[in-house]
Design brief:
The chain has 6 helices and no strands. The protein has helices at about 1-10, 15-20, 25-30, 40, 50-65, 70-100.
């Protein structure tokens, strides 16, 4: 966060204690850091900018295949795996309930 404040706004975090920066302004500046900032990435962002997404979409449009580094593809695959695992767990619980019921 401190490095991003210096990089993007030329502000020192120490200005908060010096009285030159309010908490409100700090919050606004942090909220509007670019998606490729270290802070956004540390908070779970993928570090991709709009340009990155547009270029990945161009690859997809011209080749018919999603760009392998596209975070949307990775997220979709992770969500699909999570849904499949949940379905397996539900099926196993149902099997167990039926086995218990038959006993």
């Amino acid at each position: 966060m401190e490095a991003d404040l210096a990089r993007y706004y030329r502000i020192e975090l120490a200005d908060l204690w010096r009285g030159l920066l309010t908490l409100r302004r700090l919050a606004v500046l942090l909220r509007h850091l670019p998606s490729e900032s270290a802070t956004a990435t540390a908070l779970g962002g993928d570090g991709w900018t709009l340009s990155h997404y547009l270029m990945a979409d161009m690859v997809h449009a011209t080749t018919g295949q999603p760009h392998p580094a596209d975070p949307r593809v990775r997220r979709a695959e992770e969500e699909k795996k999570a849904r499949l695992e949940q379905a397996r767990e539900r099926a196993e619980r149902r099997r167990q309930e039926l086995a218990d019921h038959d006993s």
